Every structure is written in C-alpha cells, then in structure tokens.
Amino acid sequence: MSAPASGLAQIGKSVVIKGELSGSEDLYLDGQVEGSIALKGNSLTVGPNGQVKASVDAKGVVVQGRLEGNIQASDRVELRKSAVVSGDITTQRISIEEGAFLKGKVEISRADTK
Amino acid sequence: MSSVSQNFMKFFRGSSGPEVAPDQNSQKLTRRSSGLGELSRTWESAQGLCVLDLGSTSPTNIRHFTERGHRIYSEDLLTASTDSELHTTDEQGNAMLDSRKFLADNLVYPAAHFDVVLCWNLPDYLDESLVKPVVGRLWSVLKPGGMLLAFFHTRDAGPDSPCNRFHIVGSDTLEMQKIVLRREARRGPTGAVHTALTDGFQLQRVFNNRHIETLFRDFASIKFFLARDSIREVLVVR
C-alpha cells in the first residue's frame, strides 16, 4: 500500500469506523463511517466507495459516494455525479454535477466580511 | 449482534447495481411557462424563502434559488415512489402502494414550512394510491398563502408522453429534459433502506379541470394557465 500524499489522511474501502472522527488535516474517505466527522479548517472527500452515515463539519466537502447526514462546510461543497446525499447542506458555495442525487436542504450562508 | 459492517450493508444497498449516468445526449427543450412567470414574482421580490422542489435533483434549480438567497429543499418523490418495499394490496387484493409508509419516509417536514412548492408533473405520473395523500401532506407543509405549481397533461397527451425533469432557466422559462434510468439507495427517517429504480415513467392518468379542482379543494384558490402544448399549468394557494 502506497503512503498517503503528504497532509492527506486516507480511509480505505475495507475500513469500517463507528464513532467520532476529528482531525487537523484533509481526509479522503473511501470506507464506511458512522458517527460524526469534524475537520474544521480542512477538507473531506468521500470517495466513490465511501458510505458515510454521519454529520460532517469541515471547510470543504467533496462527495463522490454516499453520505447520510447534515453537512456544514465553511467554504465549499461539491457533489459529483455519483454522489447520493441525504441530509441538509449549509455552506458558502456549492457545486452539484448533473447526475448527483440530493434529498435535503441547501442553504448558502455567506461569511461576514469585516 | 450484527457487526458494524453488516449494519452498513443494511443502510446502503444496491451500490454495485447498474447505474446509468444521466444521458448526456438527453435533449433539453425550452418551454415558456406562464405559471412559473407568475410564481417567480414571489421569489424575485422576497428574501429568505423556503422552496420545495419535488422533481429530480436539479443543479440548475438549486443554483437559481440559492443565488437569490433562498433555501431550497430537493426531494425526488417520483423516484421514491418506485421503492419496491411500498408494494402492498388493498382489501380486495388489488396491488397498491402503501401511502402511510411512503409518507413516513418522504415529505417529512414541519407544518407550514414552505413558501413555494414545485410539483411539476408529479400528479400525472405518481401512482394513484399516493396522489391524494401526497397532496394532503403538501397542503400541511405549505405556509398559509404559500403557493404550489403543478403541471397536468390535457386529453391530447398520449400514453407515451415523456416524463420530464424541469430546470428553471429564466423568470418564465423552463428547460424540459426526459428522465433517464437511475438506481439509488436511500435510508428514510424510519430507518428502512430503500432501493429505487427509475425508468421512463408512464403517464398514469389525465385529469380534467373538475378532477384538479377536487384534488386541490382544501386550497384557498386555484388558477389555470393553458398553453399551446398539451400541458395545463395550475397554481394553487394555500
């Protein structure tokens, strides 16, 4: 198994995690996670094999697999065409590819400028 | 006790099934909509509205409303209605869909939550057993004064009338795109996993004006818009 790219943690598709995930680096998740994911200031990518049943709090979120739970992203959310998302999304920016499935709310919250 | 892995396989099924990507060549036809034009005055002049889109997930519609500062909920009820676990029979043994189960997992919102509901062509293509319960639920989740837009085929429409998705591209302009095959697995609020297979939906019925008025009889007002094509637009106010 090759080492993950510098600054990027990875959860492979055979891995199953139940609990609270938190960290201070970007995370690529291609396995199964149930619980909560907190990566404030960092990005989460749910790979095509990823199956997430968790609330997500991160800077950026990219979904290619399945995610059930609310997403709070301080910067950006991307739903790729293979994404299946069930939950509410709150973010500053959102990009949804044709083919993505979403059941839930999308709310854009702009950061206060000072 | 099931392992975590086994529990997850219960939550998400069908992920290895055939999943046809949206037909990139699926033609988009532009259509002017008087009903949309009247309805869009609502969201162009107001702030922070709550909108419910009951069609297929439309990035275009989501962008349209979020750019204007509104919240948009996306819920594809037609796809949800194809869940095989909804199949049941009535007292006479006739096949039907379980509307109670359907509403336990879909359209689960607080009362008087939405300012606008976009039904598109849902009533024409939804299974008979779900139409009235769904409209009843929509009445309850709409705010008093909230508006609902729905499209109905006229008698001129044939049984092979394509079931389209609708994308808002202007204040009174829609793009229509035929719905294509997709397999999806979702988990509803009750915890059940639903694997839904969608295909070109069949037109279930053609409502006449009296039927439409009866369907929306609990609403305060109803307005019809006739168009040159075989579509009749209806705007109702709760």
What does the model show?
The complex is a heterodimer of chains A (114) and B (238). Chain A is mostly beta strands. Chain A has a domain at 12-85. Chain A is built from no helices and 10 strands. Chain A has strands at 8-11, 16-22, 26-29, 32-46, 51-63, 66-68, 71-79, 84-86, 89-96, 101-108. Chain A has a 6-stranded parallel β-barrel with strand order 5-6-8-10-9-7. Chain B has a single domain (28-237), classed as Rossmann fold. Chain B is built from 8 helices and 13 strands. Chain B has a 6-stranded mixed sheet. In chain B, strands 1-9-8 form a 3-stranded antiparallel sheet. In chain B, strands 4-5 form a two-stranded antiparallel ribbon. In chain B, strand 2, helix 3 and strand 3 form a beta-alpha-beta unit. The longest helix of chain B is centred in the middle third of the chain and has 14 residues, at 128-141. The relative contact order of chain B is 0.21. The A-B interface holds A 16, 18, 32, 34, 51, 53, 66, 68, 81-82, 84, 86, 94-108 and B 3-5, 7-8, 11-12, 15, 19, 21-22, 57, 59, 62-63, 66, 69, 71-76, 182, 184-187.
Can I get a quick summary?
The complex is a heterodimer of chains A (114) and B (238). Chain A has 114 residues and is mostly beta strands.
What features would you highlight for this structure?
heterodimer, A: 114 residues, mainly beta, six-stranded parallel barrel, B: 238 residues, alpha/beta, Rossmann fold, six-stranded mixed beta sheet, three-stranded antiparallel beta sheet, 8 helices, globular, disordered N terminus
